[in-house]
Amino acid sequence: MTTQPPQQPGFPQQPGFPQQPGYPPPPLPQKKRSKAKMGCLGCGGILAAAIVIGGIAAAVGSGSGDSSPSAANSAASADSPKATASSKASGAAKTTGSSKTAAPRQSTVDAFKAYVKEHESAKTRAAVAHVSKVQGADKNNDILDAADIYTDYTGDLLSADTGSAKLLASAFADFQSSRGKASKNGLVTVYNADGDILSNGKY
User: Fold this and answer.
1) Is residue 33 pLDDT above 80, yes or no?
2) DSSP-assigned letter for residue 32
3) Which residues have a Cβ under 8 Å from the Cβ of 131 and sit 6 or more positions away?
4) What is the dihedral of CA 106, 112, 117, 121, to 10 degrees?
């Protein structure tokens, strides 16, 4: 009785052929990772590193900056259009108020003419239309006060303009008394266009 050699693993027994000495089966090829998968993993690693670095930079930057609420509020209020508009509105209000307080005062000649037109006779109102300038009406010391009224009259002391000048001197005394500027020793002089005296009177 003959004994057959044992069957070698990895090779089937073929009929009609003697048993060949066995060889170990070849190793199975290892599966290689595709380049696409490796690329994805590389991108993921880079992205994760960028996120970590960005978080650290943000933490360091927020710590070094000025985080006081007053600085933030002042910067926000300075840049906001509402603050700019309100500052402009307040500036305009101040300008309007200052212009009201700094309104020019009525000149003495205008005040004198206004007083005559309201309180004096028709002849005196006609005469005051010839007045061009009034000087010295606001300086009183009750010792030696002098005021001058200049007119566009062309006559002299002997002309008809002298009567109108007397009316003006009398009206000036009333005007000064109404303003509380009457003087114990005041003298008003009325002049014609050439600077010659037409009349004078006390006030």
Assistant:
1) no
2) P
3) 109, 112, 113, 149, 150, 151, 168
4) 170
